[in-house]
Amino acid sequence: MLEVSKIEVVYHRVSTAIQGVSFEVEKGMIFAIIGSNGAGKTTILRAISGFLGLDNAMITDGVIRFNGEKINGLLPHQVSRKRIVLVPERNKVFETLSTHENLDILGAGEKADKGSLDRIYDYFPALVPRRKALAGYLSGGERQMLSMAQALLCSPKLLLIDELSQGLAPMIINHLIEILLKMKKDFELTVIIVEQNAKVALEIADYAVVMENGRIVFDGIPEKLLQHGDVKEFYLGKKGDEEKSYHDVKQYRRSRRWWG
Amino acid sequence: MQIILPTIILSCVYALLGAGFIITYKSSRIINFAFAEIALFFCYIVVFLTFFLGGKTTIPIMIVLALGFFFGLMIYRFLIRPMIGESVLSTIILTVALGIIINAVSALIWKGEVQTIKFAWRNLYNFPGGINISSTEIITIIATIVLFAALGCFYRFSKIGRQMRAAAENILLSSQRRINIYLITGVAWGISVFIIGGAGILFGANYGVSIYMANVALKGLSVALVGGLDSLRGAVPAAVIIALSEKLTAYYINPRLSEAIPFIIMLIVLIVRPWGLFGTEEEIERV
Amino acid sequence: MSVSNDRRRKKIIGPYLKRSYAEDMVISAFDTPFRKKWMIVGIICFCIFPMVSPPFFLHLANLIAIACISAMALNLVVGTVGLLSLGHAGFMCAGAFTAGIISLHSDMPIWIGMIAAGLVGAFLGLIAGLPSFRLKGFYLGISTLAIHFIIYYIASEYQFHAGFGYGIEIEHPSTGIVALSNGKRWYFFLGFFVWLTGLFIANLLRTRPGRAWIAIRDRDIAARVMGIPVGRYKVLGFVVSTSITSIAGALYAYYTNLVTIEQYSFWLTISYFAMIIVGGMGSILGSILGAFLITITPYLLMYLFGHLGIPPSIMDYFYAIESGTFGLIIIFFLLIEPLGLVEIWRRVSTFFKLWPFRYKPLMITKR
User: Fold this and answer.
1) Does position C366 have pLDDT exceeding 60, yes or no?
2) What pLDDT, on the 0 to 100 scale, is given for residue A259?
3) N or C: lower Cβ tally within 10 Å for chain C?
4) Sign of the dihedral through C-alpha C128, C133, C134, C140
5) Does C362 touch chain A (CB under 8 A)?
6) In a domain, C21, yes or no
7) Which among B197, B159, B181 has a CA at the least distance from the CA of B23?
8) Range B236-266 burial, b when 16+ CB lie within 10 A, else e
9) What is the pLDDT of residue A252?
10) Whether residue A150 sits in one domain with residue A254
11) Domain for residue C337, yes or no?
């Protein structure tokens, strides 16, 4: 469905952020991208969903194809029309609009109508009592729900989720994951999920890819990843079968990075 | 008693001037400092077209209003759109520069002559009690009410209005949510320059077309600030307060002080409640 | 291999290799051989220029120098601290009038006038900075605008009631040792102050206040959470900036031998904002480039018009044409490079630094 081929993204015309990234996402799968901060995970999602001038970012090499059609360099609203929708990491909702207004924002002539608005509230019942509240005053979990609901209203075929679990309590994360899986089933979505929390991502993924420093360094099905020593070390905090502290992990990683 | 009608008219004009600033702010978080110059320019065009075409001012006014919308689209396309994402200060300086250019053009062509705009319907109505209303004043009042009602409903209830507010707040997110930001923001600018033109024309009809307009446009800014830069609703009470204070001061205290009153009120409001009487509290900030 | 080879390598690489934080933070124009060469060339050009240039260009250079000082001060408060200060013209006016009043009533050397102007400016900056405890962004700008109008009003009242119809006139000032009576002497005097101001601000930026200001500009809530007393540093930013601005105003008064209220209208603030925005905000080099460009523009236009042989009837509208072109130039530069001239400079230098690569390559990771 989505084919990313040797993508290179450059920021401010100077710094390369990701290079040589290639992968393929098939219809109906949940595709996870894991990696640490600064690896370029958000960049690859933004590259798929489109850059605006203000990002100072360019795709300088490579091709992204969605169902065979090239979508590099399209603007975000054009990409959204092709039913690829992004739930961003930061600034996910319109803070000066109320919750209901945030949802009621799509133009006429698109599939969103009164019926689908009500159905969305079925998926996110926690938002119902907060309908009139300004989105700026919502809590982190509620914002994430609002953002996902907004994305859902754009009738996506491919949903890109950036850092679902960022800043949220584990119980809320589980709740959101449940809702996500339900959404995926009901709407036949394909999902690309970017996560720092590798455990959460690998639990639900059908296929996963590890990014480090702007490149893909490892990929495979979650079982394979879960058994690989490095992944366990860096992202799950285990050496052998014991838990390791983050400090030890970081040291080891640094040495592995430079000396191979 | 003498001052009630002039105060009402002044409030209407101030409210519309304030609306011009508010609409620009609502659509792109920018204060358009070319406001006064654009209004003046359009007034001169109305006068010129009336003279050129002969006949009444009605048709030139409609032409100029349509031109205003188009001009707003052009300003967006060539000046604002390239600056998406740059600092607000740079874009504001851009509008200042635009104002300078339009001012220069006006000065070159019309050399700062004083003109008036006379509406086609000219009549004076006398009511008992010594109250006289001229047709111009009636038009002003009705136009203000209609425009405010239309704009208020538009922003609050229509989808496009919501999309405009969303695009003003976060243009990237709007684009990611399928809102065609170029179209929406362009139309928003078109509407805002349209309002600027309308406000200028009504001002010119009531008080004459001259360089003095620049001063009054600044008072429009203070109306917008007092009422709340993002609140159309706030412009009306703010305009009434300022117009009333100004007229009362002029009448009872000192005409020269009345010129400064709008700015004094603005300062007081800024200290006490910076986001205006009806504005959205700008404290929604997260680290 | 041999000792001398090692020493040579150290000499070539040495300046580029920083081994401690202190080394990294040194402000030096003479560290690398490339810089040494070009600094010496620059200093020679600087010294030769007044000898060979016609007096009009010397005058222009002096005006540019004063504009540089004032622009650097404005860039400090707007570009580095991130506060909108619309009272710039008012502060220059205050400095100028202070200098004027002092030189009227006494025959002191220029230092006294400058120090007094600085103190007056600092005091006004304190007042202007106080609202920043409560107001932010655009609203703070409005309050500084009010300060501008208040200063303007007081100064114009003084000018007209104390009987100076056309403005206060000042004799050529003296530094105590030598009288600043001709363009050449002013050139070196002002050049020294431009250098001093640039050094002062560059140094401030690497010390605690400078870091605090940058933190405040980027995210003032986070700065406060980190323990930076935001209000106090904002006021400090205002005070430093306005005192330098007032000194610049005093220098302008001494240089042009005239203090009159008409020169300090809001238009002056607008042109200084144009300088820092076209030049590049938050950057010392940007202030200098912007000051250069904006100061030169009206004279350039005059020259062009004279050269093209415009008939005198059009000259009546010269002011309109000049201001119109001024606006066009600002728009042109803003559209071409919204981050200012300094960004163009950075792009050029990055091009040469990265060459033959186009972009900074990713780090190599071995797996």
Assistant:
1) no
2) 40
3) N
4) positive
5) yes
6) no
7) B197
8) bbbbbbbbbbbbebbeeeeeeebeebbbebb
9) 58
10) no
11) yes
Domain count, chain A: 2
255-284 of B, contacting A, C-beta below 8 A: 280, 284
Residue A202's domain comprises 2-227
Tally of domains in chain C: 1
Domain with C123 in it: what CATH number?
1.10.3470
CA distance B185 to chain C (A): 18
Tens digit of pLDDT for each residue in B60-119?
A: 888 888 999 999 999 999 888 888 777 778 888 888 899 989 988 888 887 777 777 777
Among the listed residues B44, B172, B167, the one whose alpha carbon sits nearest the alpha carbon of residue B113: B44
The number of C-alpha atoms within 13 Å of B175 and in the hemisphere containing its C-beta is: 21
Strands in B17-164 per DSSP E:
124-127, 131-134
In CATH, what number is assigned to the domain containing residue A21?
Answer: 3.40.50.300
Check residue C41 and give its pLDDT.
94
**Residue A41 shares a structural domain with residue A112:** yes
**Between chains, do A213 and C367 touch, taking CB under 8 Å as contact?**
no
| CA-to-CA separations, C165 to B277, C103, C168, C224, C261, in angstroms, rounded | 43, 18, 8, 50, 10
Nearest CA distance, C284 vs chain B (angstrom):
18
Query: What CATH code would you report for B4-272?
Result: 1.10.3470
Question: What percent of chain B shows pLDDT beyond 90?
Answer: 8
Are the C-beta atoms of residues B84 and B29 closer than 8 Å to each other?
Answer: no
Complex ipTM over 0.90: no
Residue of chain A with shortest Cα separation from B81:
A53
Does A257 sit within 8 Å of C360, measured CB to CB?
no
